[in-house]
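Re: the request from the purification team.
They wanted to know what the chain is likely to look like in 3D before they choose a buffer screen. I agreed to run a prediction and write the result into the notebook, where they can find it.
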Amino acid sequence: SMLVRGTDLDIHRFDLRSSFDCSSGVGTAAIQLAKFFGAHVATTVGSDEKVPFCRNMGADKIVNYKHGSW
């Protein structure tokens, strides 16, 4: 069941998928809310230096959108 739905943020009962950088203010809040609701969090970063910060915020899967081919 859907808890929150938006263009950049979808929180389902067990997962969060975001299309914004998790180290932003919105990204940080979204991760904390999703984890509060028990969600598995997959998010993005724009540099490898941001990965530890996002991991500490609770993100389970972190993808650097500047690496690889999409």
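For the purification team: Helices lie at 25-36, 51-57.
Please add any questions underneath this entry.
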